[in-house]
Design a protein that fits this description.
- Helices cover about 0% and strands about 45% of the residues.
- It has about 375 residues and is mostly beta strands.
- It has three domains: about 120 residues, Hypothetical Protein Tm1070, Chain: A; about 110 residues, Immunoglobulin-like; about 100 residues, Immunoglobulin-like.
- Strands 1, 2, 3, 4, 5, 6, 7 and 8 form an eight-stranded antiparallel beta sheet that branches.
- It is globular, with a radius of gyration of 21 Å.
- The protein starts with 15 loop residues before the first strand and ends with a strand.
- The mean pLDDT is about 95.
């Protein structure tokens, strides 16, 4: 490298059962920085071994790709996921095409989860620049971004795109407050059902060049609060003019359960009846969740499973199988003689006892 680069990440005070990254890339074009790639370092910060997974969704939304570590991760140990290699493992073959073991080129958001607390840092590296940030352990409904700029210092000056990642939010409102005048410019952004978006200040109507803004973002799901994650990428033309900071969550931390769908294994391998299909879900919150009255439903096929007698503990991962019983995954089975999940694509919805859809997971473009 002709010009050495340097960067740092924040220390992480606590882990979580799921951590969120608003930006990752594999041979991506990060606002003009070609061949940007992100390595992700996931650490087990709990007291027992875990087997972490990581799911990538294309920026702007799309089909998620999930990878699971092949072996468990000891307490205190770290897993380095490098998307340039098969299954992210640098001891495996270098990826030359998109396959079941190789992530496609592009830009992504990601979520990593495990049955115990984990933490993660993200290294965003291009041939001429380097940046890093810490993955978020708590998506929130409100974020503060103290300094966001639009061509500060001139046309080649600092511009700071905001990367938003959807949690439960389906939209976000921005309040752009000018350092110079105090004027507030509002903006509403629609979020994909999964994944995230890039918001470039240069494309926001009403903002002016060579200006700094203090930004407040609020997540919405319909008319209710929704959660999201936010980071800011600070860029200017030339060499290593690049850095990232994490958005600041606003408001108290409230202990609560949070059950979300994490995977649908839709193409069973045991037989044509595919009894080994399953839907996976996890309580990523901090309190137990009584699942009585909750339901999992197929959007395409309309089949529904109703829960009874299950209370999910914080961090617990369960699987609902089509026609198998696995006590280690909570022992849940649809007990159906034929496949329940279409191999041509479908979406699973998880509804709470009031009928509200609290999590959704699609596959093959659904």
């Amino acid at each position: 490298m002709a010009n050495p680069v340097a960067y740092s990440t924040d220390g992480i005070a606590r882990g979580a059962f799921a951590v969120y990254g608003a930006y990752a890339a594999k041979n991506g074009n990060d606002s003009g920085r070609a061949n940007t790639t992100s390595t992700i370092v996931i650490q087990n910060v709990g007291a027992a071994a875990v087997t972490p997974s990581i799911s990538f969704t294309p920026l702007g939304g799309g089909v998620a790709r999930r990878f699971t570590r092949r072996a468990s991760l000891a307490p205190g140990a770290a897993w380095v996921f490098d998307p340039r290699y098969a299954n992210g493992d640098t001891t495996s073959p270098f990826c030359v095409a998109t396959t079941a073991e190789c992530l496609a080129d592009g830009e992504f958001t990601f979520v990593s989860n495990a049955s115990g607390p984990i933490a993660a840092v993200v290294n965003v590296i291009s041939p001429e620049s380097a940046m890093g940030y810490s993955a978020n352990v708590r998506p929130n409904s409100t974020f503060s971004l103290p300094n966001v700029t639009r061509t500060l210092g001139g046309p080649a000056g600092w511009t700071t795109p905001v990367l938003l990642q959807a949690g439960t939010a389906t939209s976000a409102t921005f309040q752009w407050r000018s350092f110079r005048s105090g004027a507030v410019t509002p903006q509403t952004v629609i979020l994909p059902q999964s994944g995230g978006v890039r918001v470039d200040p240069r494309s926001v109507p009403g903002l002016t060049d060579d200006t700094q803004y203090a930004v407040t973002i609020r997540g919405l799901r319909g008319s209710e609060q929704g959660t999201l994650n936010a980071i800011v990428i600070e860029l200017a033309d030339g060499a290593d003019n690049a850095m990232i900071y994490e958005g600041f969550a606003v408001g108290p931390t409230v202990a609560a359960p949070n059950v979300v769908l994490t995977d649908v294994f839709f193409n069973g391998k045991v037989s044509a009846a595919e009894p080994d299909e399953y839907v996976e879900f996890q309580n990523q919150g901090t309190l137990p969740q009584d699942m009585s009255g909750w339901r999992i439903a197929s959007v395409r096929g309309a089949q529904t499973y109703s829960f009874a007698g299950l209370t999910m503990q914080p961090g617990q991962i369960c699987r609902l199988y089509t026609n198998e019983v696995h006590p280690e995954w909570c022992g849940l089975s649809w007990a159906k003689a034929s496949a329940q999940w279409s191999n041509a694509g479908d979406r699973a919805n998880l509804s709470d006892a009031t009928g509200k859809v609290v999590s959704s997971f699609g596959y093959l473009g659904q």
